[in-house]
């Protein structure tokens, strides 16, 4: 017997319709590449996203056709999110920090029909348009009078002229909620990038779960600033969660330095921000240098790579801001776990609480996870044993776009994350490493994240990466690569002394090297593969 409730498909268009009907006045504030601050609201975004839909209809795009964006966080990008998906096409967000060749490769692989870009990226587009064989319409995200005449790019139109010709009187089509909605490519540190293709259903379920109190706790009283780009796993789903709850959105555009982000947070009453750890280094440097506090910001979501406990502590003790440490991946839409305390943990002394907050947190409803040993046997949740982390759920990938790489799932429909982790009795996940970053010393594993977290608590250290270096006796030994804070002084011996008593002796790095900068990938994560290549010949004092 079936239930007797109405059967409405979970479509992304219902999010913007809901926001426009119930929160038309809630603001969407954007720092534009033009430099000014632009103010819009859900009512306007809904109307203009319908104009986007009309423009795509006029081009004759079919359901499921891909429309790419190469853009910062801003209101036009948000309109594209809703207009493209609402009309049944697929929004393909491309990371502009990739090399031009990679961007062209991805656009061709996705068979993008339209590519919309911020003017900042005009030089990239000038270099690649000839190679993007499927793109038939280029759209510059600007006013008609800002479009240079002599770009040489065929079929180029200014966004405002493009959508200006369309009516906002548009009825969203209805279709199967399992239809494709958005496409994101993984960064492809090994081999070619692969596409994760989200559906309307997976996106809405992810938005519901992400908005829950023990996840990101989104509400109509929030003012949300995603520093995490809309091209990095849909800004972790925040644009959808914000529309669902009617939260104000504040978009930083291209101005991602500490001062610009801080000024925006204060001016727009931001209550919650989100980003990878490296972006908060700039913000905290700025606030520390100028003795600044946050008037309204009370929580910040940090994920994408391990958030150093020193950063969580600094936010808590100096700024009264709670860090929500989150873990996920492109293949998971991306949310998997978020770290919020259970009742008994709220009573713990501050230091013990910090140890919990430094973990990646508990699974949000919808994500089922387990850890297994090398033979696939499930390991206990004892907080001690670590193994390969597997996940499954309705917003986790079942196969890559175009079937690339074959079936990624193992028995039981589990997706292997490539992460090594432990889970404690309270269900808190702790990522030890990415499996390819683990350091194998004499048959024992050393967690590079543990070593880095300790190094980051040293007052002279701005950023630290712990990598494996080949060793004649132990196979591999850890080397600590350190970027110092401006004007800070420290010797390798001083840094190493800082590890005493904090970690087993054999886990302490064999050596420390100082560098001017640590290479960051397109999403702001440390590129340890590059460091391993750079230091593979490093002569360890123990070798
Ligand atoms: P890419 O490698 O393509 O940038 P993702 O952005 O999807 O892919 O990165 C997912 C990976 O990032 C995870 O598998 C994990 O290794 C790492 N990661 C994400 N969040 C955290 C976190 N809070 N702590 C440690 N590692 C994390």
TrEMBL record:
* Entry keyword annotation includes Ligase: yes
Q: Which UniProt keywords apply?
A: Fatty acid metabolism, Ligase, Lipid metabolism
Which positions are tagged coiled coil? none
Gene3D superfamilies per the UniProt record, alphabetical: 3.30.300.30, N-terminal domain of ligase-like
Does the keyword Membrane belong to this entry? no
Q: Name one GO biological process term.
A: fatty acid metabolic process
Q: Superkingdom of the source? A: Bacteria
Indicate the segments forming the AMP-binding enzyme C-terminal domain, all copies.
451-525
Report the GO molecular function annotations: ligase activity
Family to which the UniProt record says this protein belongs: Belongs to the ATP-dependent AMP-binding enzyme family.
- Its recorded name reads Long-chain-fatty-acid--CoA ligase
Q: Which organism is it from?
A: Pseudaquabacterium pictum
